[in-house]
Amino acid sequence: MPTVGLFIPCYVEQLYPQVGLATLRLLERHGCRVEYPEQQTCCGQPMTNSGCNDEAKPLADKFLRLFAGYEYVVAPSGSCVSQVRNHYQQFLDGRPGFEHLRRATYELCEFLVDVLKLPRIEGSFPRKVGLHQSCHALRELRLGSGSERKVAPFNKVQLLLSELQGIQLVELARQDECCGFGGTFAVNEEAVSCMMGKDRIADHERAGAEVVTGVDMSCLMHLDGLIRRERRPLRVMHVAEVLAEAEGLS
Amino acid sequence: MNPTDRAEHAVDHAAAAARFVADDARAHWHDQALWWVRKKRDVASSAVPDWELLRDAAAGIKAHTLSRLAAYLEQFEQQATSRGAQVHFARDAAEHNAIVHRILSERGITKLVKSKSMLTEECHLNPYLEARGVTVTDTDLGERIVQLRHEPPSHIVLPAIHLKKEEIGELFHAELGTEKGASDPKYLTEAARGHLRQRFLEAGAGLTGVNFAVAETGGVVVCTNEGNADMGTTLPPVHIACMGVEKLIPRWQDLAVFTRLLARSATGQPVTTYTTHFHGPRPGGELHIVVVDNGRSRQLADPTFRRSLSCIRCGACMNTCPVFRRSGGYSYGWIVPGPIGSILAPGRDAAAHRSLPFASSLCGSCTDVCPVRIDLHHEILAWRQEIVRRGLLPWPKRAAMKVLAVVLRFTWLYRLAGWLARRVVPLLPRGLVYGRFNGWGKQRELPPMPRESFRDAYRRHRART
Fold this sequence. Notes:
The structure holds two protein chains of two kinds.
Chain A: E1 3-6, H1 10-15, H2 17-29, E2 33-35, H3 45-49, H4 53-67, E3 72-75, H5 78-87, H6 89-92, H7 98-104, E4 105-107, H8 108-115, E5 128-131, H9 135-140, H10 156-162, E6 168-169, H11 185-188, H12 190-206, E7 211-214, H13 217-229, E8 235-238, H14 239-246
Helix pairs in contact in A: 2-14, 12-13
Chain B: H1 13-22, H2 24-46, H3 51-67, H4 69-82, E1 86-90, H5 93-106, E2 111-114, H6 118-122, H7 125-130, E3 135-138, H8 141-148, H9 165-176, H10 185-202, E4 205-208, E5 212-214, E6 219-224, H11 228-234, E7 238-244, E8 248-249, H12 255-266, E9 274-278, E10 286-292, H13 296-300, H14 316-320, H15 322-327, H16 338-348, H17 365-369, H18 376-389, H19 395-409, H20 411-424, H21 430-433, H22 454-464
Parallel strand pairs in B: 1-10, 2-3, 2-4, 4-7, 5-8, 7-10
Antiparallel strand pairs in B: 5-6, 6-9
């Protein structure tokens, strides 16, 4: 039975507890022993992405201290996992346990597909779903091939979703354009950020989606903020919520 | 602000972008025009087997060349000279401009035709020569359009992409005497062609940029779609080719890698309409090659930002960039905009261009389209660190990060802050929560504030199981 340290991004912990719960239930349902280290706060990505490395380093240290002992670390976020896998090296290179931590930290869908090697999630989700490809999951973790690269097409998130009974994955005109969240970018470049978000929403609407899902609640929080302001008939759900609901876990 | 000397001013990308976005229809039109080019690039690159290997090869050749640039420069100079070209070296923009002016003035040339050269834009050659009595005509259609409007190009490959055909019709009516209200692209292009033909015939010299310079052969290669570089180098007797030191590649056979990548990445064409190879001057003519450093060797010395010297100026990173498409080239306030410009511009003047590395959602699409595999979004991120290190991040942002970092270091404080936000925000009047200070809430609702955190939910879950 794999032992998983559950890594819940700070904004999910505070604002989207149901996403954390769905992640927990999915992992337990598929045979993992899950622990949530309660001292965790934030991986430090807002600081790293603002160039404030001095402020980010203590958070990287804290993360290593809390998570180094786990066989696996799993988070319902591509972006925060990328912070650990691709950006912690500058803070933690050579520290005992870091190499293990880096290799053992997975985004949820990646973990289900690559580590647990689930052939499929048994369940049904009879809705029209638009998959938002969040950029860090796609281009930093390579959960999918991406529209830019000329490699054999694959997509781990889509793979899990497409096996659900009754689901209709809609076809977007721009399959993996950024939603414009981008962390502090969402506020620093508010005008462009919101235009990007609205364009994504329009694409999902035109494609007939009822639900927009994705692996990063941060992108979905941004899109949801725009959707609710404009009272659009779309709903956002984290992919963990979709999978948990399909499996009857919620 | 005079757009031709934008670089002298501190750039506020977010403010310029907000102005661009404010014209929603135009911003969408700009976005869609460039997305169309990006899609053409996707199709064209899919047609090449082993596209990704080609990118590897290009990145490898560039890295190798840059690792022994001095030796290749010497070899190039020797070979070019032996073919009868005159090679000039310029340390900076001022030396470059002075060399070009000297070549012209020594021969009494007062009329120059120019094909596209981002280097001469970077060096502000046109105003320098015009102040000394030389008439400079940009002969690339897009470049000519922006020149007639007294504007710099807004994109390195598509200089007039920010303009609609109706605006070009008005400009040509005023400047070239086309019919009022005419906006048919073919008609306008014919008019420009006639106008430019006269300039070609009158010119005493033709100046071109350089896409690639081959050390082994001493040849330079110029890629255009309009044949204007060819007109400009076959009619006048003097050809001046201006290049940055980074345009070198070692061998003739390396060129094939880049010509396969360049046009496909830039415009989605299999190859540019004209790919012209200059090996020495034509009979009876002169070929001057001006090789310019202008800050490039300083960049070469920097291990973090060295890789972006591999740039072949295809513009693919601009076409794919969701921010560039929605903010326009001018919002970057530098001659090379977009993701690559956000790396190059702060390298020249970090204080003036400190907002550019933040004009990115770090989506990474630029990195994946780049034909020479520059890790653009990582270099953009590295520039953010550099800007903080040099104390150039505006203090409110710096202070916000410091406060946030303290809150996140202490779990109890983090929990308290989260609890307070979740309990207090729902009680506040909407007018207060969505006040002016709330940049998030201008167009977006705040996330719902649940009563319990995940930790609370986890504890309940554990109590049950």
